[in-house]
Amino acid sequence: MLKPFKAAVYAFYARRLRARLAGANLPRHVAMVMDGNRRWAREMGFEDAKIGHRYGAEHLDEVLGWCAEIGIDHVTVYVASVDNMRKRDSDEVDNLMRMIEEVVAERLSRPASPWRLHLAGRLDVLPDSTRHALKLAEEATRDDGARLHLTIAIGYDGRDEIVNAIRSMLEEEARAGHSVEDIAARLTADRIAGHLYTSGQPDPDLVIRTSGERRMSGFLLWQAAYSELHFCDVHWPGFRKIDFLRALRSYAARHRRFGA
């Protein structure tokens, strides 16, 4: 709990940052690598660092509220890679998956939630209960055209996504009876993009990674080719509204070149 004076200063600064963004060029789609749950828990003095995953899952709800408040209608969050699922300690993976089921999927399924859920990744590497909970949440949010859009990248690897997209496209073309020469002649980036996990969704304008790491870790390798990147030194559960607003301020100050 912030002390009264510190809380008042924080609130004033947040309002000032928000006011400066009025009329600014803001991202339509923000993607986030939610890094640092375990490190945050250790720094906070928790004996079991895995408790950071619960705080991280709870915090996603708050960050989505900030996005909705400012008018960002597409959000993608990186929850777990394929390597995370395969190489992390089984107890930690089980704990993370339980948090996804009990916190994220359950809250998104509530009628009051404004978010429509999309899934990106290899769901076959997830535990049955997690896969079932996420699919139920996806189905529960599917029919409301007015919803904001949240994509959860879980069991995800950007290189696998591109390989799978090309494979899917080739299989589709083969079923249609096209030759290799025909396929090669008509191959375009847009056709490959149509087979990605995120087909039909806009590419991210801004990618935020918490916890001080300066790398993408295989996240949205195709989609983020021209995204602006923002690296924040705080761990995900400690990612504050002012950190979020600073990222938007940085984005608004940039001149996007889209590879030019």
Automatic annotation (TrEMBL):
GO molecular function: ditrans,polycis-polyprenyl diphosphate synthase [(2E,6E)-farnesyl diphosphate specific] activity; magnesium ion binding; Z-farnesyl diphosphate synthase activity
Primary enzyme class: transferase
Record's keyword terms, sorted: Magnesium, Metal-binding, Transferase
Designated name of the protein: Isoprenyl transferase
Entries under Pfam families matching the protein: Prenyltransf (PF01255)
InterPro entries membership: UPP_synth-like (IPR001441), UPP_synth-like_CS (IPR018520), UPP_synth-like_sf (IPR036424)
Active site positions: D35, N84
Enzyme Commission numbers on file: 2.5.1.-
Free-text cofactor note: Binds 2 magnesium ions per subunit.
Keyword Isomerase set for record: no
